[in-house]
Design brief:
Layout lengths: L1 E5 L15 H9 L5 E6 L8 H15 L4 E6 L8 H18 L1
Parallel strand pairs: 1-2, 2-3
Amino acid sequence: MIYFSFIGNHDARNPNSDEYGAFVNIFKEYQKSIKKIYLFVTSSSGNINYNEIAKSNLNIIKTIKPNIDFEIIDFKIANPVDYDIVYPNLLDRVIDIFKKE
């Protein structure tokens, strides 16, 4: 199974907590089936650095499944909540990934 996901605000982990965001929780649930991860990361916003959140989450995942294959995909779009922009761009990227896989 290939796992596609975005990194969001709620994936930032509080170091004083044992709770994870959706990205890690979904991985933990399906870890035996997941062979590769494609992680879409949008531009940083204000004081939120999504690339750092992605790397931190992938480090957590690598402690669970050290040999997991993953790719971080920079998803540079003007507005990550404008679905008229997100969906066509996401579709193009996923089609390219399917061709590669």
